[in-house]
Amino acid sequence: MTVSAKTAAPRLGRRERYDPKVVTAAFILIAPTIIGLLVLNIYPFFDTIRRSLYKTQGLGPEVYVGLKNFEKLFTDDMIGHATINTLLYMVLTVPVGVLLSLIFASLLNSKIRGRDIYRGIYFLPMVVAPAAVAMVWRWIYNAENGILNIALGALGIRGPSWLADPNTALIACAIIGIWSAVGYDLVLILAGLQSISKSYYEAAEIDGASGIQTFFHITIPMVSPTLFFVILMRAMSSLKQFDTIYLLINTRNPAYKNATVLMTLFYREAFEKFNKGYGSAIVLYTFVIIAIFTAIQFISEKKLVHYD
Amino acid sequence: MRKLFAILLTLCMVFSFVSFASAEDVTITFAFWDNNQEPGMTAIAEAYMAAHPDVKVEVQVTPWNEYWTKLEASAMGGSMPDVFWMHSNQFFKYVTANTLLPMDFEYDYSPYPAGVTALYTYNDVHYAVPKDYDTIALVYNKEIFDNAGVKYPDDTWTWDTLLETAKKLTDADKGIYGFGAPNDRQSGYLNLIYQNEGFAFENGKSGYDQPATQEAIQWWVDLQKVHGVSPSQESFVDMGVDDQMQAGKLAMCFTGSWMMSSYTNNELFADKFDLAVLPQGKTRASIYNGLGYAGAASTKYPEVVKDFIRFCGSEEANKLQAEKKAAIPAYAGTEHYFTDNFTAINIACYPEMIAYGVQYPFSPNKSLWESQEEELMNEVYAGSKTVQEACNELHGIITEIEGT
Fold first, then answer.
1. How many domains does the structure of chain A reveal?
2. Contact predicate B69/B98, CB 8 Å
3. pLDDT tens-digit profile of B355-369?
4. Hey, which of A223, A259, B84, B371 would disulfide with A169, CB 3.0 to 4.6 Å?
């Protein structure tokens, strides 16, 4: 690497045409990403739309059925349950998760000893495979031998059968979701906090602002672009939640109806019942829901997010 | 360094030469999903290769879930393994897509359980040779019986004996239940349905509207809901019925023969349990299911594949797989090679029950209604539907899906 990128690139004026050689080179360089996107994301997206209009039967030929899959979608009880559960899951995980991340990030932003160690510990759940996370939590939630119910028992409370009780199953899954995500969100928010210029705080101190005032009038507005990003990503991923719920709640679970979400329903339809057409319809339906929420967030961004 | 490189290069050349040389021989691939059965399958492949030096059989093991994804993808891409295990849940999908090689040779299917042979027959053509079968038996914890001074289960037992004994052995304070009755079809209430002379699904028709069928399911549900001799369905979510059995929390439960390696490998439990045939209702019955050896329609060597599958189905190959504890061999008369591996327990009751065994109900669209059955049963356990309501609803669903 003796030639720096700067000297290699030709200097271009504003209206000058690009050197075809450079353009070719650029295309070659971005080709792996573009091809990957086309093959793995864009083509499957359009193929999903096509498939949603077909009925798949095993390996046999697909039959065109028009909008039948969508008709079924709106009469299927399970879709209703799954939609409510998915939205509930988002409401349970996003506010609490982001708030916890913000609190922990603020604490880590102060000068405390062993900050990197804490950061590492909070980040750990992110590194662990979801299947392993599910296994560990299955034991924590075990009604008789689980550490959670043993702890509650010591306080004289008889804990429920967390993953099998229709009232607690979704909450139990949401707790795992929050636990897994806090570490990652925290790192993002922490980076946002550290980029806030010290001079704002110094000025606030001179003006005699209290810690809480500083937090709400300086920290929150200054970190709001990062917060917005975190909330957006977290909302999307909570609407797409699949792995832990799929691993913990099966169809024999008494809480199945109360804890199944759109993505697990999609998987069961497409890959367990081999009904790929209907599965594709569920995916598109979820896509619309996510699009609506993302649009709402982008509209509110203009009012709530402060860019300096 | 340079020397090492030279050696590697030479080795590469030698290997490419070797593989080039063997390309003139026939190589067929043999795929299956059960890691525990690899020794048995390898033994069969080796025995075949010893008799046919010009054929090479390559054994491929892929875990259950990936196995079906891989097989589906390879079927679409026309690159299926030459020989592979087939399961009743998946057979219809592959046979209707013309991906299976017809077993159009003269073959004697009389040594195999008729249900397993029928399972892999479509439009009167055989598409697989039976490999093995499994049945359901009653497993019991000897320690719990001894402590209560109760006689062990035997072949005189009926539903009433089971319930009475389960009541005697249930000790809720100690967390011990007499019997484990989970929301389970194959190792659960399907056995009772046939013992009660009902049926679940036969000749394209649902039997869930039959009083005998509903009565049997009711009896199974009542074990928990009315008599309290079984732990709750919630507890089976945390710990499956076989895990509860092995943890000493259950005196009895039903379990399939495929679970025996798990039971006998559990050092803490291996000497504490034994087996008995299922208790009888109006009649005797035990659900059986079986796997088959199938071939790919796209294979380059159909004759070799057929010949290898013939060998897999032979008495000799069944003896080989049974000796390696693979599974109960499908070929009548070779079961003892399997049961001889387990001397401490009455494992012979598994093959014994094939005499009155009932083939695990099968339909081309089973995957579409099987999970709905589990969901409906959930509602029965939750108390929001009666057994009769759930069964009638299921009957409607199956009838609509199967179109009969």
1. 1
2. no
3. 999 999 888 788 788
4. A259
